[in-house]
Amino acid sequence: MRPPINIGDTTINPGQRRTVDLAISRLYSRTAMAMPVHVIHGKKDGPTLFVSAAIHGDEINGVEIIRRLLKLKLLNNMHGTLIAIPIVNMYGFINCSRYLPDRRDLNRSFPGNYKGSLASHLAKVFMEEVVSKCSHGIDLHSGSNHRTNLPQIRVSLDNPETEHLAKTFGAPVIIDSRLRDNSLREAVMDKGIPMLLYEGGEALRFDEPTIRVGLKGVLAVMREIGMVKKTRPRKKEPLQPVIVRSTSWIRASKSGIMNHIAKTGTSVAKGDILAYIVDPFGDEEKEEILSPLNGIVIG
Fold it and tell me: Structure pTM?
């Protein structure tokens, strides 16, 4: 029999499924706040995986991915333990905001400190109560406000295990992305835990293709690390993700209103038209925005 797992003040025995409300700082009105953590502690040995979403409170596609994940019956016979946190930044989620009430970015506050800011305190709770119990991690994000991103995995490709899991996930694009200071990904990788960052869609909107790719990807990783039973291999080989070694912003050349031509996921060659910038009053000719290089539109 596997040993139980402890989250906060709650003990979850093998074969149990519990939701634990981790207490965090109260609102100024003294209203109690909590970070709900759903734990499925399988009877059989296996990895412990955390799947988190809404570290940025307005990035909600991951919330729906986790909701659908937790409804799947195949989790009833799971090996290992799944720790699912659909809403890490409850303050931001309630306020439809990327940030915490003190305007800090939670994903620049790890590994955290109980004596620090609200963001630092919340980061410390997450590291101690969730990350420290895990062998693998997946963090789910969306594009920030008014920006839409192609479904993508961001990892450091100098780590063979994360590279393998990134390819297993099956997103259209894998971006070799440096670790950002004080991010969750940096803090988790510093502990030697392989972690994927999935991103797609836009803030405050459910994007169905992004949600489907994300759910399928999480399950693919769970199968690969032995948490759920693998399915029979398909006759048709799945599409291989494109490996992206560098990314670049294309900046507007003048003021005006932009009309997109190249959609996310489009392959473009140097010189292709990406968009037009037009004068809202029709007094000037439209300006072409040309691609300065060969690549894929990822956002």
Answer: 0.95
